Amino acid sequence: MATLFLVGGCSDEPEAKRPGPAGPTASSDQPTRTPATQSPGLDLPGNAQILVAETTGNKDQELPEFTSEEGAYTVYAVCEGKGKVSILNRNSSNAHPVACGGVPTVGVIYADKKAQHLKIQVVGDTSVWKIAVISGNHQS
Predict the structure, then answer these.
(1) Which domain of life does the UniProt lineage start with (predicted)?
(2) In Å, how far are 14, 15, 87, 106 from 19, measured between CA atoms?
(3) Going by C-beta distance under 8 Å and a sequence separation of 6 or more, which residues neighbour residue 102?
């Protein structure tokens, strides 16, 4: 059983100064693994073991299966746009929202050392999201 804790940050930046959402950059169903869109970057720890490389998209997407050998993993996510973006474990219906507006969402998930299956869900208007997953607890 996995437990998901996500924290969205705050920004005192006025809406007018925030970058606008980027449009899709590819028609493929495969996620983009490079920062090909204009969504904000993720501030990943330099020494972290990457479980899912930075992945960018603008619609529902299943992430690659991964296993953390540390009993926990940290999810870094950000989105731009007016839609609602959530992270789901494919074995659960509990959606965990990602804060849009360029404010990073970081969450630590404590899970058994077995394969994990996450999915990004986009509802409503267009949103461009970016996510990465690293091994261990890197939130503190």
Answers:
(1) Bacteria
(2) 11, 9, 23, 20
(3) 11, 13, 18, 19, 39, 40, 78, 80
Side-chain-side CA neighbours of 87 within 13 Å: the count stands at 31
Residue located via tokens 């404010």: 103
Q: Under 8 Å CB-to-CB from 48, ≥6 apart: which residues?
A: 74, 134, 135, 136, 138
**Interatomic CA distance for residues 70 and 93, integer angstroms:** 25
Q: Write the pLDDT tens digit of every residue in 55-78.
A: 999 999 999 999 998 999 999 999
For the four alpha carbons of 39, 25, 128 and 18, in that order, the dihedral sign comes to: positive
The helix (run of H) or strand (run of E) holding residue 96 is strand 95-98
**Closest C-alpha to 75, from 39, 32, 111:** 111
* Higher per-residue confidence, 131 vs 8: 131
The DSSP call for residue 140 is -
SS3 35: coil
Give the CA distances from residue 69 to residues 41, 88, 106, 138, in Å, rounded to whole numbers and listed in that order.
26, 21, 19, 14
